[in-house]
Amino acid sequence: MKKKKIMFIILCMLTVLAAGTAHATEKERVDPLQPAIAEKILRFHVLANSDAKDDQNVKLKVRDAVGHMLGQKLKKVTDRAQTEKIVQDHMDEIIETAEKTLRKSGYTYGASARLANVDFPVKTYGDYTFPAGKYRALQITLGKGEGHNWWCVLYPNMCFQGSVYEVVDESSGEELREVLTQEEYADVFDSGKMQIRWKFLDYFR
Q1: Comparing C-alpha atoms, which of 62, 116, 64 is closest to residue 87?
Q2: Which of 97, 154, 175, 185 has the most CB atoms at less than 10 Å from its CB?
Q3: Which DSSP string corresponds to the chain?
């Protein structure tokens, strides 16, 4: 009886994993709503010099410094175009802030920044999963830019809820809901799947 229960548990886990993989693969391959979603948001992307621990740590320091500076300037933006204009108008200050943070932390490599159309894989941010494809982004590259990256959604504001850390609260979700159509919002909102996963795990606790 015990062996049957173990086999049942293993079978259920494999089923859930297979379903999750199939969902991720499908979302990675094609999402007809991706272009419409991408038209309405601006992402913030920081590429570390390398995957070395120190390079990854300073990446987060740069994120915080630039985020603090931009957060003050973007408080009253009402659309993506306005956000892009403010970012572009302050690009020199963004680069200066990033390089100042690097120098203060003892690094000799520099930083570059640009507004660009960037290819992103499927990315999950809190309860929200954004489909793969091209997105407009403020991209900061530190040194060679060969390390793991950090990202968030700059418009609508899902970056700066009191800090620049990856905290997506209800107000962030509401801002996203106001920008996207109902269908687009349902496409990225992931809480239902998350709840199912956690309930499944709770069954075995």
Answers
A1: 116
A2: 154
A3: -HHHHHHHHHHHHHHHHHHHHHHHHHHHH--TTHHHHHTT-EEEEEE-S-SSHHHHHHHHHHHHHHHHHHHHHTTT--SHHHHHHHHHHTHHHHHHHHHHHHHHTT----EEEEEEEEEE--EEETTEEEPSEEEEEEEEEETT--S-EEEEEEETT-S-SSSSSS---HHHHHHHHHHS-HHHHHHHB-HHHHHHHHHHHHHT-
20: phi then psi, degrees, rounded to nearest 5: -65, -40
Q: Where are the domains of the chain?
A: 34-191
Q: Print pLDDT tens along the chain (205 aa).
A: 556 666 655 665 555 454 454 444 444 456 899 999 999 999 999 999 999 999 999 999 999 999 999 988 998 899 999 999 999 999 999 999 999 999 999 999 999 999 999 999 998 887 889 999 999 999 999 999 999 999 999 999 888 655 445 555 566 678 899 999 999 999 998 644 443 343 344 434 4
Predicted structure pTM score = 0.76
Tell me, rounded to whole angstroms, the distance of Cα 194 from its chain centroid: 17
